[in-house]
Amino acid sequence: MFHFEGEWFWGVDRLGHLEARLAARGLDREAGSPLLAPAFEPSLGPPPEGAPPTIEAWFSFRSPYSWLFMPRIRHLAQAYGATLELRPILPMVMRGLAVPRIKTIYITLDCKREAERVGLPFGRIVDPVGAGAERALAVLHHAMALGLGEQFAELGLKAAFADGIALAEDEGLYGVARRAGLTDAQTAAALADDSWRQRAETNRAALLEAGLWGAPTFRITGHQAHWGQDRLYMLEEDLRAAMQGAAAPRQDG
C-alpha cells in the first residue's frame, strides 16, 4: 500500500490515482508522459464470431463496488450478446465476515474516486445493511423471474449509493421497484416470500467453490472467476476467448 498526503492507494490497481495526484503537485519528472500503471477498461471492440457465453455475476446490495460494476457489466454483456446471470448474495457482515471500520471508510473513499474515473454518480449513501439488503434481495428474486432482475439490481444499487434512497423503507423500495417495471402488488408478494434466502445461500456456496468470497465477482461459466469492479477488462478477454473457442490466455496473479 502507498500513502500520500492523507490518501491511501491500495495495490497496483490504484497506482494510477497516485501518479495523477503526484503529477497534480508538480512532482512528475516527465510531465505529460503516459501513466506507468493506468486503469484498464474493456475495449468493447467488435465481438468475434461465435456463440456468446453466459456471464455469472455475484454482487451484494451493500457493496458500493457492486454499484460501480453493475451498469458496466450489463453494458459489456450487451455489447457481446452474452447472457448475464445474476447471483446475488448477502453482504459480508451478514454472512459472519467482519469488516473493520477503517476498511469501510477506505472503501467509501476509494469508490468515490473510482466512480469519478468511470463517470458514475456516487456519494449519497443510505447503508442497506440488514433489512434493506434482505428486502432488496426478496424483490430481486421475483424481479428475476419476471425478466426484470437486471433493471432492479442496477436501480437498487444506485438508490443505495448515489440517490440516497433507503431500501429498508417502503417508500424507497417500492419506488425503485416501480422504476424497474414491477407493480406494487408484485413487490408486496415478493416481500411476503422468503424463498430468496435459498437462492442467496446457493450463490454463496457457489462463490466459495469458485475460490472467492467478496462482491463483485464474475466469470464466464467454466472459466476462472475474477474479483473487483476494476477487472472487467479481464472478463472481456475471457469473453473474446470463449467466443473464439479458445481457453483464456491469462490467469490472475
TrEMBL record:
<feature type="domain" description="DSBA-like thioredoxin">
    <location>
        <begin position="54"/>
        <end position="239"/>
    </location>
</feature>
<dbReference type="InterPro" id="IPR001853">
    <property type="entry name" value="DSBA-like_thioredoxin_dom"/>
</dbReference>
<dbReference type="GO" id="GO:0018845">
    <property type="term" value="F:2-hydroxychromene-2-carboxylate isomerase activity"/>
</dbReference>
<protein>
    <submittedName>
        <fullName>2-hydroxychromene-2-carboxylate dehydrogenase, putative</fullName>
    </submittedName>
</protein>
<dbReference type="InterPro" id="IPR036249">
    <property type="entry name" value="Thioredoxin-like_sf"/>
</dbReference>
<dbReference type="InterPro" id="IPR051924">
    <property type="entry name" value="GST_Kappa/NadH"/>
</dbReference>
<dbReference type="GO" id="GO:0016491">
    <property type="term" value="F:oxidoreductase activity"/>
</dbReference>
<dbReference type="InterPro" id="IPR044087">
    <property type="entry name" value="NahD-like"/>
</dbReference>
<dbReference type="Pfam" id="PF01323">
    <property type="entry name" value="DSBA"/>
</dbReference>
<dbReference type="GO" id="GO:1901170">
    <property type="term" value="P:naphthalene catabolic process"/>
</dbReference>
